[in-house]
Amino acid sequence: MTSNDSTYAAPQDSDQKRSQKKSVWEVLWVSFKLGLTSFGGPTAHLGYFHHEYVQRRKWLDEKAYADLVALCQFLPGPASSQVGIGIGLTRAGLLGGLAAWLGFTLPSVVILIAFAMLVGGGSVESYGWLKGLKIVAVVIVAQAILGMGKTLAPDRIRMSIVGIAAAIALVWASPISQIVIIMAAAVVGWFLYRQQQVKETTAFAVPIGRTIAVNSLILFGVLLVLLPLMRMWTGSDWVAMIDSFYRSGSLVFGGGHVVLPLLERELIPMGWLSENEFLAGYGAAQAVPGPLFTFAAYLGAISNGIFGAVVATLSIFLPAFLLVVGVLPFWNHIRRLPYVQAMLMGVNAAVVGILLGALYDPIWVQAINGTMEFVLAVFLFILLVCWKLPPWMIVAGGALGGWVLL
User: Fold this and answer.
1) Domain of residue 392, residue span
2) Is residue 356 part of a domain?
3) pLDDT tens-digit map of 190-203
4) Model-level pTM?
């Protein structure tokens, strides 16, 4: 009997491993497709993620997604990339988180390295297709806000929080404004909803032990302290590069646009590239899909070739990965506490408001400057929302429309 039992258990273990491997490849493929088509910056990325992971594949529900977005707004680093990493972690563990990051990041890294190697100081900002892709970002974000608003702000109080959060985010444009808005909304949610019976929260499995999580947070802190010391002790340009990019990725709140001045102050005084090369790369980074943090790949390639691009990219994203791995296993428990759920009712409405504010500025302001831009945006919105066309077709149609009409 023992022999038969052991013989029977082996196929189960084998099936489990095959299932996990399949999940990792699934995460990699889905995130890679998003990495190829997600234009428009971090707010638009959240819209693409919402459509693919929540609406289409149903890997997590609306509230779990909103809770994850709220958590990543608190963490330093690229919020949209951290949301993607978090979804990959819940889907397929550590390898899933790595696959989600790699798939979403790789397309823009390759494009920006090629731009650094072949184009150098060229400009892409005047191209019509780029204007069309900015209009696509308007459409994607508008659809995400519409869907999230119905679920996360169903009453007058939470809809009011949406409006107030949007107004504050627009009037007070600061790297810390999002954190202050979310904290204030948490207090309002606790005050107004702490006595209300809330629905049972759907738990999303996080197949990571708390020991790994704690070690990840410790490693994050150790590197943040140790790298500047190693830079002084060794005098190595490579250690200096790792330190500059790691510190920039560790200490920035507010997304990719905020990290740009940090990188400029770090790299240009070192003589690693010129001001014109920096600005040309920034223009290229705006034109490619995926996270703006991949601008590090261009900077590394300009200063130290392909190997420099790899080192810079890994260094700037490593803090984001360590923080998500370190916090997410605890977050699933914390978010199920009754008083935390009350706070999240306010926070999730504030997240919708922040997205609404970002829909206007910078997305709408940069994309819609005339009648033809508005007409194209309305046409693409109808195709996406009413005709249910997949996002990649909307991206292709927007690029074509921008090239032909604009």
Assistant:
1) 19-199+206-406
2) yes
3) 999 988 766 666 66
4) 0.81
